[in-house]
Known about the structure:
- The protein folds into two domains: 7-209, Distorted Sandwich (Beta-galactosidase, Chain A, domain 5), CATH 2.70.98; 211-585, Alpha/alpha barrel (Glycosyltransferase), CATH 1.50.10.
- Strand 6 (59-64) and strand 7 (71-77) form a beta hairpin.
- It starts with 6 loop residues before the first strand and ends in a 12-residue tail after the last helix.
- An eight-stranded antiparallel β-sheet has the order 6-7-8-11-17-15-14-13. It has a four-stranded antiparallel β-sheet with strand order 1-2-3-4.
- Mean pLDDT is 94; it is low at 592-597.
- It has 14 helices and 28 strands.
Amino acid sequence: MRNLDHSVIGNCRTAALVAPEGDIEWLCFPDFDSPAVFSGLLDEDKGGRFGFRLGEGCGCSQAYLPETNILRTCFTSGTAAFEVLDFMPRYHISGTEYYTPPEIYRILRPLSGRPRLRVVYEPAPGYAAEPVRHERHSGYILSVSQSDSKDTVYLYSSLDFNGILEGEELVLEREEFLLFSYHEKLITIDHARANLELERTRTYWLNWAQRSAKFEKYGELVSRSLLVLKLMSFDQTGATLAALTTSVPEVLGEARNWDYRYCWLRDASMSIMTLLRMGHPNAARRFLRFIRRIVRSKQDSFQIMYGIRGERVLTERELPHLAGFCGSRPVRIGNMAYAQKQNDSFGYLLDVIHIYYHFFDGTLDDIEEMWEIVKRLINIVRADWRKPDHSIWEFRARRDHFVFSKVMCWVALDRGAEIAAFLRKDEEERQFRAEAGAVRREVLAKGWNEAIQSFSQAYGTREVDASLLLMEQYGFISAADGRYAQTVDRVRRELYHQGLVYRYSHSDDFGRPRSAFTVCAFWLARALFVTGRKEEAETIFEAVVSHCNHVGLLSEDLDFATGRQLGNFPQAYSHLALIEVASLLSERKIWPSFIRP
Length: 597
């Protein structure tokens, strides 16, 4: 049975998942949200893959080159061994320009003996819906979709083309390379070029990682999480993806299979705030440019999520020809959640914009344009906070007065008031603070349930959910407030199970959840820490990170019984929360010098 024990390579334009045995099993070309050209992750038989085969008894080990997104896979068979270095080129060109072509280099280096291997090269464009023919040209193999002659990919290599296509056994006697590219190359591709791209890309990632805050405790986990968050940002626009995959199930064999290759304002804002705190202010600048781009006029509306170029319509459909991850259907592309009302979304965004105003320089027109966006967001919140919504959990068939949605409306109004005060807009500050006060009074009156001695998931209900743990983090309530401590206790009693945490335990549109939502365990660890239970917090944190795969990556969900990773992968939510809790447990201030919290 498949596991999410994959590694990830990428260059902020697209990314690939590499299995432990070296097969590329997921790659969308040319961009993160393009149709997959390798989707073996979702159909082992016909999804397509790109890897290597050795004889029986071979072994593999895998690790990233330190503080980079360059992957090293070592293969051994008897006395022979070789390594493969996988990467997508990314490096600085000039000004704010980076070289991020849609291509993957695979450099093969013999380590001992005379390694023998076969290349498995099975591109399957259009999510494996299009048959392919291969054409041998001078210098490359052209793979062409038989249903669309414009859908092509290129393979350059120092290995024999016939040997690659026929799956012949090859003897690795010197360094070789393979370059899989969406475009035809206009420069000579040889060993020198492959190694030049490797060193340029290695230098880029080392420089980027060097600018990150460092931790003695949990340092490697934090570093890998930061590198993953960076890799999941779309360089062309500044949008940040929730995850790199679609339709990896939350529970095997069930229908909770969604496409996460989009930019949720919630997830993106949290990711950007984390990168900002850890020493990467350019991530915030680029994300806010993305926000300005998607609301160019005063008539443009806001929604909870967008395509990575700002697309507003993300039509959801199924791909019935794919078997699904471990047979879990349906496979979906697109996500109908874009049409939902989630009143919490703008609180996270205004939290980031608040930081922008207080700690970053901007031109007058930038500041004025952002102020217009702030006012429009606040107007939406003022109009909607009393209305029911679908919540942070994106219930498809339920609207309610969810407590955490109201809390984040308060956050939006509170940060809006802070921005107005900074800009000396006294009347707006007064209005925003008055409205924030109204929200807070209502939540304290209607959100607290005396019968269960806790805040509840929604007004008038007895259920709790893990989002309530974040009430303190966003400043709505103090960690010293007994009501918060009691809520933490209630969530722990009801949702904590086998070292992990349910998001909620009641039935939803698809029945009762049966997997742990990874980020919720981090939220509980944080809540325990700030309420003085530091040993409990560390125990939970270490239990969660023990489920990281062999290269330190986490998915959306975890199986309670086995700890098996499930859900889309890697998940930004999971990694940003890991960083947050690791910083608390390290008792290290993580705001860099350019920000004064």
